[in-house]
From TrEMBL:
<keyword id="KW-0949">S-adenosyl-L-methionine</keyword>
<feature type="binding site">
    <location>
        <begin position="135"/>
        <end position="140"/>
    </location>
    <ligand>
        <name>S-adenosyl-L-methionine</name>
    </ligand>
</feature>
<dbReference type="InterPro" id="IPR002649">
    <property type="entry name" value="tRNA_m1G_MeTrfase_TrmD"/>
</dbReference>
<keyword id="KW-0808">Transferase</keyword>
<keyword id="KW-0963">Cytoplasm</keyword>
<dbReference type="GO" id="GO:0005829">
    <property type="term" value="C:cytosol"/>
</dbReference>
<dbReference type="InterPro" id="IPR016009">
    <property type="entry name" value="tRNA_MeTrfase_TRMD/TRM10"/>
</dbReference>
<feature type="binding site">
    <location>
        <position position="115"/>
    </location>
    <ligand>
        <name>S-adenosyl-L-methionine</name>
    </ligand>
</feature>
<comment type="function">
    <text>Specifically methylates guanosine-37 in various tRNAs.</text>
</comment>
<dbReference type="InterPro" id="IPR029026">
    <property type="entry name" value="tRNA_m1G_MTases_N"/>
</dbReference>
<keyword id="KW-0819">tRNA processing</keyword>
<dbReference type="GO" id="GO:0002939">
    <property type="term" value="P:tRNA N1-guanine methylation"/>
</dbReference>
<dbReference type="GO" id="GO:0052906">
    <property type="term" value="F:tRNA (guanine(37)-N1)-methyltransferase activity"/>
</dbReference>
<dbReference type="InterPro" id="IPR029028">
    <property type="entry name" value="Alpha/beta_knot_MTases"/>
</dbReference>
<comment type="subunit">
    <text>Homodimer.</text>
</comment>
<comment type="similarity">
    <text>Belongs to the RNA methyltransferase TrmD family.</text>
</comment>
<dbReference type="InterPro" id="IPR023148">
    <property type="entry name" value="tRNA_m1G_MeTrfase_C_sf"/>
</dbReference>
């Protein structure tokens, strides 16, 4: 799997591939990450990559030509001149969720465009971008943080990256399980600042522990993200015991 990133700040990515659990995906070669700076493909002594917007207004807009040249170099460098999906991180993009992460983690990679300033010349987007992704209803100063978020989420799903191969199955939002939020977690000591670990987790009774975790996930999801309960119910992922827990929590009929 190969990801190429077009960014004016390639130095932001170096610590990411050298630290933390997800570094294993890069060290093993499961994910190949190449960084490309559009400034290297700009003309003139100043290697200018932006200019003022037509029609006036604040801020600057990234020029189409340096991006197009940089993208052409990336595509020529990929195997068999594979153009690959071209992803732009943008507020108008589709929200990044678990299903989208699973889609990208099972693919061959992509070319990621990290915009800056007020945006990118629309003509470049119309000509080359195949997908647009958003992290949510807010604006970042550039696409690098969004690109890192996608890369991190994809890397941790690669085989051998996590210590426990099954740990990602218990992640929040995983539709392969039920799409609910994860339950609370506890570790030593058993009592901390007057707060004790729930006795169910200390019982050693596996069925009781699993029921407690399931109940917690249901109650937490109903309280924090009720739309996920509705989606799980519509998909037939809730059983009679689950519905009894929701009724007790006052969340029946969500």
């Amino acid at each position: 799997m190969r990801f190429d990133v077009l960014t004016l700040f390639p130095e932001l990515f170096a610590p990411f591939v050298e630290a933390g659990i997800t570094r294993r995906a890069y060290a093993s070669g499961q994910i190949v990450l190449k960084l490309w700076n559009p400034r290297d493909y700009a003309e003139g002594n100043y290697r200018r990559v932006d200019d003022r917007p037509f029609g006036g207004g604040p801020g600057m807009v990234m020029l189409a030509e340096p991006l197009a040249r940089c993208l052409a170099a990336v595509q020529a460098d990929r195997a068999d001149n594979d153009p690959g999906p071209v992803v732009l991180f943008s507020p108008i993009g589709q929200p990044l969720n678990h299903a989208a992460v699973e889609h990208w983690s099972a693919g061959q990679g992509a070319i990621l465009i990290c915009g800056r300033y007020e945006g990118i010349d629309q003509r470049f987007i119309d000509a080359h971008v195949t997908h647009q992704i958003s992290l949510g209803d807010f604006v970042l100063s550039g696409g690098e943080i969004a690109a890192l978020a996608l890369l991190d989420a994809v890397a941790r799903l690669q085989p051998g990256v996590l210590n426990d191969e099954g740990s990602h199955l218990e992640d929040s939002f995983n539709p392969a399980v039920d799409g609910l939020l994860d339950c609370p977690h506890y570790t030593r000591p058993e009592e901390w600042q007057g707060q004790r670990v729930p006795p169910e987790l200390l019982s050693g009774h596996h069925a009781q522990i699993e029921r407690w975790r399931r109940d917690q996930r249901l109650a937490l999801t109903a309280r924090q993200r009720p739309e996920l309960i509705a989606a799980a119910r519509a998909a037939g992922r809730l059983n009679r015991a689950d519905e009894a827990v929701l009724a007790k929590a006052g969340a029946a009929g969500l």
